Amino acid sequence: MAIKHFIPEIWSNQILARLNDASSFLQVANRNYEGEASKGNTVKINEVGPVTVNTYTDNSTSDLTWEFLTDAQKELKIDQFKYFAFAVDDVDRLQARPDVMAEAIKNATWALRDNIDAALAATYSQAGVTYGSTGSGIDVNSNAVFKVFNYISHYLDTYNCPKNGRWCVCPPWFYYALLAKKLDVDKGQVRGDLEMGGFRGQYLGYNVYTSNNITNGNVTTNAKVMFGGPEALSLVVQMDTVEAVRPSKAFHDLVKGLLVYGYKVVRPNHLATLTCDYTAESTS
């Protein structure tokens, strides 16, 4: 591949599109501040406090009661820098089917996806509400775990979390336990590129996603299933650089890419964590 045929803009967009499609947490985190950030930036998020409503007396000569607005500021730092770098030999590339370069880009995409997905899954510890605890997680095969959905909904309602866009990210075995209980899960349409995680359907007003990066999700105890609203998590992702180099003393291409991102739990009271266990039911 001659260097003049390499188009970094096209490859950059392709990587970002696959990240968005393949990752559960990239789908539930909001991207409200993405257009305002670049590598090394800190996005300052302002929030205006409540406004008091007073009673007005008709024909009163008294002055109105004025109040100064209060505000709070949160910082979302773009402080995660991740890269890939690989070489493809001309001979290998010509003999390989499917195309080596395309497969390498696909593998790099999945690796970046996993990195962001795992980082967001680790924010479970910042949730405003927790249910169950390490060592005494809710049994996913008991009816109690499904009552948790209603409990968390009540909590989110209390803190004015929007009903539209609520989500649950769980390990695959949690989702299949929902199906095994013959609960009314609207399975929706699952695309082929979401086989390793993504949207699975709706249950009790939540968009249900699966992720293999849920903390302890690959074991049978203390899995940290996460629930949230559309404003709970904020994420900024940018493909900063994709470059190709043709070394003068070899017949191969060198390709490298740099991804930058930052994330923050913006509204902890719109985020909830369920610690749950899985005990296989008897099939006899």
Outline of the structure:
The protein has 284 residues and is an alpha/beta fold. It contains six helices and twelve strands.
Structural summary, described in words:
By secondary structure, this protein is of the alpha/beta class. It folds into two domains: 126 residues; 108 residues, 2-Layer Sandwich (capsid protein of prophage fold), CATH 3.30.1930. Helix content is 25%, strand content 30%. The protein contains six helices and twelve strands. The strands form three sheets. Strands 4, 5, 6, 7, 8, 9 and 12 form a seven-stranded mixed beta sheet that branches. The chain has a three-stranded antiparallel beta sheet with strand order 3-11-10. Strands 1-2 form a two-stranded antiparallel sheet. α1 crosses α4. The radius of gyration is 24 Å and the shape is flat. The N and C termini lie far apart (60 Å). About 3% of the residues have low confidence.
Keywords:
single chain, 12 strands, 284 residues, 25% helix, capsid protein of prophage fold, alpha/beta, 30% strand, seven-stranded mixed sheet, flat
Spell out the blueprint of helices and strands.
Blueprint: H1 8-22, H2 24-28, E1 42-48, E2 71-77, E3 80-89, H3 90-95, H4 100-121, E4 129-131, E5 138-139, H5 144-158, E6 167-170, H6 172-180, E7 197-203, E8 206-211, E9 223-228, E10 233-245, E11 252-265, E12 271-277
Parallel strand pairs: 4-12, 5-12, 6-8
Antiparallel strand pairs: 1-2, 3-11, 6-9, 7-8, 9-12, 10-11
